[in-house]
Design brief:
CATH superfamily of the largest domain: Dihydrodipicolinate Reductase, domain 2
Number of domains: 2
Radius of gyration: 20 Å
CATH topology of the largest domain: Dihydrodipicolinate Reductase, domain 2
Distance between the termini: 11 Å
CATH class of the largest domain: Alpha Beta
Order of helices and strands: EHEEEEHEEHEHHEEHEHEEH
Length: about 325
């Protein structure tokens, strides 16, 4: 395939490039695009260094597939141009996710949403949605899910390389006497702290990030009856998100059946012997493809409830890997 990558210099763009090489994706031509600021920089693919070109309206021609990882405003402006030139677009932004005619895809969960047609734009779900549904879907296959209460613990790399730099710099400043922290990306000092708000607050007092989990999950599962109440929290972790899920079903599911279903699901590993100190943490899944689930237990306060904990690398499975898997599915 002839492939273009918009936002090639960002964290997700670079990860897409890395994964395309790791998975030996068949490429006949590869081009990188970015902002005026990143234009001229070079990124290595296999043994060749490829220069990032400044993205212009006439840039996106002669591509079979274009990955977009440069934010919603860039996707809204340039993705339709790529489609009009005959390309398929896989978009990592939120720009088109809730459009009725745009597939929103997690390949392990709803590959059928793009089979049998050649769509112009395919959307990658939000990273927290992807990681959460990797644990919810195998249980959803056992019993109807009525309600989910989710609390996410999201790493600073979810805000890009600038988020990583701010955590590292503020950690150093916090250890110095009388040094003031700098806040460019996050609303509060992220070092030795947690921030219970990601994205703008909407009229219902939930944040944009929290409503993404609710709305996107319904679309991916094709189930408008499932209710998801989320709290999204930024934590001082460099990479990989963690989500605590409390799930209420329409009937009781045994721990044995749940553990077996989770363990058999593609892209998911069970690590669950908490009495022996065996449970997943963000470090366990960082730079790895699989999500990891643990702390599987019945909710004693609910007749048909279960609580689980899942971790996943939001740059890989939560973004870049999922996008490449969609390309492989195509």
């Amino acid at each position: 395939m002839r492939i273009g990558i918009v936002g090639a210099g960002g964290a997700v763009g670079r990860e897409i490039i890395k994964i395309l090489e790791e998975r030996k994706f068949k490429i006949s031509a590869l081009s990188f695009f970015g902002s005026k600021r990143s234009a001229g920089k070079q990124i290595q693919f296999k043994k060749k260094r490829i220069r990032i070109e400044e993205l212009r309206k006439n840039s996106l021609t002669n591509f079979d597939l274009v990955f977009f990882s440069a934010g919603s405003s860039i996707s809204k402006k340039f993705a339709p141009i790529a489609v009009s030139n005959g390309s398929i677009v896989i978009d990592n932004s939120s720009a088109f996710r809730m459009n009725e005619d745009t597939p929103l895809v997690i390949p392990e969960i709803n590959p059928e949403s793009i089979k049998g047609n050649k769509p112009g734009i395919i959307s990658n779900p939000n990273c927290t949605t992807i990681i959460s549904l990797m644990a919810i879907k195998p249980l959803y296959n056992l019993a109807k899910v009525k309600r989910v209460v989710a609390t996410s613990f999201q790493s600073v790399s979810g805000a890009g390389n600038e988020g990583i730099n701010e955590l590292l710099n503020n950690t150093k400043l916090s250890l110095r006497k009388n040094a003031k922290s700098k806040k460019n990306i996050f609303e509060r000092n992220i070092a030795f702290n947690v921030i219970p708000k990601i994205g703008n607050i909407l009229e219902n007092l939930y944040s944009e990030e929290e409503m993404k989990l609710h709305n996107e999950s319904r679309k991916i599962l094709s189930d408008n009856k499932i209710l998801i109440s989320a709290t999204t929290v930024r934590v001082p972790v460099l990479r990989s998100h963690s989500i605590s899920l409390n799930i209420e079903f329409n009937k009781k599911i045994s721990i044995r059946k749940a553990t077996k279903a989770l363990g058999n699901f593609p892209g998911l590993i069970v690590m669950d012997q908490p009495s022996k100190g065996i449970f997943p943490t963000p470090i366990d899944c960082s730079n790895k493809d699989n999500c990891i689930v643990g702390r599987i237990r019945e909710d004693f306060s609910s007749k048909h409830g279960m609580s689980i904990w899942i971790v996943g690398d939001q740059i890989r499975k939560g973004a870049a890997l999922n996008a490449v898997q969609i390309a492989e599915l195509l």
